[in-house]
Design a protein that fits this description.
By secondary structure, this protein is an alpha+beta fold. It folds into 2 domains: 71 residues, GMP Synthetase, Chain A, domain 3; 69 residues, SH3 type barrels (Roll), CATH 2.30.30.180. 26% of the residues lie in helices and 39% in strands. The chain has a 5-stranded antiparallel sheet.
């Protein structure tokens, strides 16, 4: 992740002002800032022109804000979209996802299944293995992503 939540908030508010949603912002060991964006309006496509616009914007903004980086890479989430906020789990209820936990539960640190429910406190996953519903508080979740589902893209529809 970035060094400070201030940097994260600067990027988030800046991108929101452009009409996009920040999904991830991480700096790698070489100092490259990797930013993943999506449209602020569900279902709106995000393309390379959008990524270029955000990259140029951040290239001017971040040095003025004192954020250190060697390069910026902006991309779309792709089919295995990260789920980083409670509202993402609500939006993609019924979709297949993988949740990685901060600490193992019953010897497992990763669960895959269908998002059955979510609220402001937790997400419920209809897990494939072990079979059954598993509830996870957001504090337990280290990372979560949608699993690729070719049927979502066959019709040209991407929620």
């Amino acid at each position: 992740m970035l060094q400070s939540t201030d940097s994260q908030q600067t990027i988030d508010s800046s991108i929101t002002g452009l009409g996009y949603e920040l999904l991830e912002a991480k700096r790698d060991g070489r100092g490259v800032l990797h930013v993943v964006i999506d449209a602020a309006v569900a279902g709106e496509p995000v393309g390379s022109a959008d990524c270029d616009r955000v990259c140029k914007h951040l290239g001017y903004l971040l040095p003025a804000e004192g954020v250190d980086f060697s390069a910026i890479e902006v991309s779309t989430p792709g089919p295995e979209r990260p789920l980083t906020k409670p509202e993402h789990f609500t939006r993609f209820r019924g979709a297949r996802a993988t949740i990685r936990l901060r600490a193992a539960r019953d010897g497992r640190s990763s669960y895959t299944g269908t998002i059955a429910a979510s609220d402001g406190d937790q997400v419920v996953l209809a897990a494939e293995e072990p079979a059954g519903e598993q509830a996870f508080s957001y504090a337990e979740i280290q990372a979560a992503r949608l699993c690729f589902d070719p049927t979502r893209y066959a019709s040209g529809r991407n929620r």
